[in-house]
Amino acid sequence: MATKILDLNHKKGWHDYLALIEQKDIYYTPEYCEIYERNGEGKAQLFIYEERENFVYYPYLLRTLSGITHLRKFEAKYGTLYDISTPYGYGGPITNITDKTEARLILERFSNAFHEYCKETNIISEFIRFHPLLQNQSIFSGSKPIYIRDTIHVDLTRDYDEIWAKYDSKNRNRIRKAESYDLRILHRDISDSNDLSDFMRLYHSTMRKNNARDYYYFSEEFFHHTCELLHEKAELIEVITKENKVIMSALLICGEDWIHYHLSGSDPDELKLSANNFLLDYTVKWAKERNYKSLHLGGGYIGNGDSLYRFKKRFNKEGDLPFYIGKLIHNQAIYKEMALKMSEEDISDYFPIYRHPDLFLTSTEDGEHSLLALT
């Protein structure tokens, strides 16, 4: 048994291991993790647990607690403290072992080794967003998976006629209606920074409309980093009216087999044109032509009952994939000491409790992450 830590100075090592894993995704690449390191959300690291030719691959963001004012006394007492989190999106440990029974066993040994590593390096807690397409929580024994909500995917291995039949009737009618408006599709060149202007305008407008949390108001720099680092793995698609007005824009990110409806925005004054329906139907056909196996649309804002989930569900009535998270505490004593200010009700609902916004965090990075922790 051996373990190693790789950072972004060793990207080739990340890719060498990834190449040996049958099922993986864009979220596991060092380039994707680097977007969030550059965004100030922590240091991107990859933990490798090896047993001869078999291994577990686990990327995460290492976050220092030094910027959180109310935790300074704990750092004075215990030294520099950390926690870790999956970057925005999905992740969690994966392995090159394809047999599920054997995979569960190596994940169990990995969990023990990683727990010891966290204790030794003052990593207090761990927050995991498991991958809905991989369903990797099913082989992970480190914590009890917590179901959050469903996400929706479209199975692109089916014939388009079969996919169309799984759209609900209202969606099909809206797509037909959108086609009557002479809408056009444009693929933007993301290497040209000027071509992000319409996307950013529509994205931020959508965030305001939906009263999104502060974290989701990504900066212009964030979007430039996303396009720079993912380049050919990112696709910016827009819907344009016959008057040459951009009314819908979506940033897709592409793995080897799966494509993700990552971030998007639409013009609230042009909803009657059903540009969202039009763009997603186009994306299904475009992705099928490129032999992707699944289009993952994600889930709703807060659960299975909200409008965003219902909209995505219209593209596959049978497309639900459960989304799970994991919560682990690696140093119970320090965690409990940090949690003394909070009520038992708060402790059960929020993780990690010491990042709760009611504790008046002063660091922008830590404040945003405290809000993100519930997603």
From TrEMBL:
Domain BioF2-like acetyltransferase: 170-301
SUPFAM superfamilies: Acyl-CoA N-acyltransferases (Nat)
Top-level lineage group: Bacteria
PANTHER family: LIPID II:GLYCINE GLYCYLTRANSFERASE (PTHR36174:SF1)
Name of the protein in its database record: BioF2-like acetyltransferase domain-containing protein
Protein source organism: Guptibacillus hwajinpoensis
